[in-house]
């Protein structure tokens, strides 16, 4: 049995003043309406970030009693992981319609913490907290510093990630930076330094927001209102909790998750028409491009500068929105691109998309390949 995404939507973005459950309700009901389904059709929920028992809390709030749930907390990659688990559950006949969702009101609530105390309770904190790193910025900055040293890359190459994201955001009316104007490499380099070599322009936004996608069997999907987007392949890898456990900060678990996803799909990176790669920081994109096989080690900067692949076409976490965990919105944009709904930012003839999530401090990695169902 094949599985497809049949609905996709975002909730309100920016600074909304709404609660997490209010934003979640928007995301879920909008995605179901997009699919031509209702809450009565839903028997599976996958979400995180709501409460200690996130799926349970959301199900109760929505007034449904699902037969299948998942609330795995793996950071930004969780939603690509949810796609795999949901597909497996649908194929097994355990569930028929699954909603994967996330929302956060972190900007309105002013809840985001950058201090090292954020993870002070973890076992690895004894080795890291005494240095008072910014969490997670200083950790990604170490990866960036290692990448620049290892490959002789330049700060300008990192900055190109943010510049490219802004180019797409200017074409997306929903993007937080839609009206901010173009971003230049000099703008990125000249922004206030946060954690060397990363300036604030190398770092994702802090916004409210979120989204949802709806999955069901491809057989059922063909009777619904939207073009089905088939789940072609998936893979995941969990590598580390702390930076002290990483042998090489320039090689991530995306190598394994990408290989598994491409292998299941019977595809290669050359088959991908549009890519949505988690861009928590500019370095995350360079590392992911190389790990997924779109270019060789040290080549991501040149690959990006040449705009060799439509990438983060919503504007990404750097210029579209970033509600703390961005992975579900990678899926939303991938689906919209494959359905040809993106207006000025539409990639012509897009038939295969990759959505790749990264969670924690380069800790968890999950890759999903999607294609227009035939």
From TrEMBL:
Keywords from the named record: Transferase
Gene Ontology MF terms in the entry: acyltransferase activity, transferring groups other than amino-acyl groups
InterPro entries: Thiolase (IPR002155), Thiolase-like (IPR016039), Thiolase_C_2 (IPR055140)
Alphabetized Gene3D superfamilies for the sequence: 3.40.47.10
SUPFAM superfamilies reported for this sequence: Thiolase-like
Transferase keyword on record: yes
Protein's recorded name: Acetyl-CoA acetyltransferase
Species per Swiss-Prot/TrEMBL record: Nocardioides soli
């Amino acid at each position: 049995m094949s599985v497809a995404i049949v609905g996709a939507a975002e909730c309100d973005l920016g600074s909304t003043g709404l609660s997490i459950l209010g934003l979640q309700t928007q995301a879920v009901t909008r995605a179901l309406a997009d699919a031509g389904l209702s809450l009565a059709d839903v028997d599976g929920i996958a979400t995180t970030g709501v409460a200690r028992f996130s799926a349970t809390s959301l199900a109760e709030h929505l007034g449904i009693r699902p037969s299948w749930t998942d609330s795995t907390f793996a950071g930004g990659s969780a939603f690509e992981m949810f796609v795999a688990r949901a597909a497996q559950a649908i194929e097994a006949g355990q569930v028929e319609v699954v909603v994967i969702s996330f929302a956060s009101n972190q900007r309105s609530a002013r809840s985001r913490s950058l201090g090292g105390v954020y993870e002070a309770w973890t076992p690895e904190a004894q080795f890291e907290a005494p240095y008072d790193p910014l969490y997670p910025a200083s950790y990604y900055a170490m990866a960036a510093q290692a990448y620049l040293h290892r490959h002789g890359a330049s700060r300008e190459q990192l900055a190109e990630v943010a510049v490219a994201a802004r180019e797409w955001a200017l074409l997306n009316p929903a993007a937080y930076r839609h009206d901010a104007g173009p971003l230049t490499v000099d703008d990125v380099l000249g922004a206030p330094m946060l954690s060397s070599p990363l300036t604030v322009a190398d770092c994702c936004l802090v916004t409210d927001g979120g989204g949802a996608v709806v999955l069901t069997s491809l057989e059922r999907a063909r009777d619904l209102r939207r073009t089905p987007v088939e789940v072609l392949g998936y893979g995941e890898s969990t590598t580390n909790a702390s930076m002290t456990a990483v042998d090489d900060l320039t090689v991530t678990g995306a190598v394994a998750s990408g290989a598994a996803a491409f292998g299941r799909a019977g595809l290669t990176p050359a088959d991908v028409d549009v890519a949505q790669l988690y861009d928590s920081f500019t370095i995350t994109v360079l590392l992911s491009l190389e790990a997924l096989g779109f270019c060789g080690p040290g080549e991501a900067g040149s690959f990006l500068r040449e705009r060799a692949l439509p990438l983060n076409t919503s504007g990404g976490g750097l210029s579209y929105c970033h509600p703390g965990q961005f992975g579900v919105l990678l899926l939303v944009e991938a689906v919209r691109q494959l359905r040809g709904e993106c207006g000025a930012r539409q990639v012509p003839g897009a038939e295969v998309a990759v959505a790749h999530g990264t969670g924690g401090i380069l800790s968890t990695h999950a890759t999903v390949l999607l294609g227009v169902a035939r």
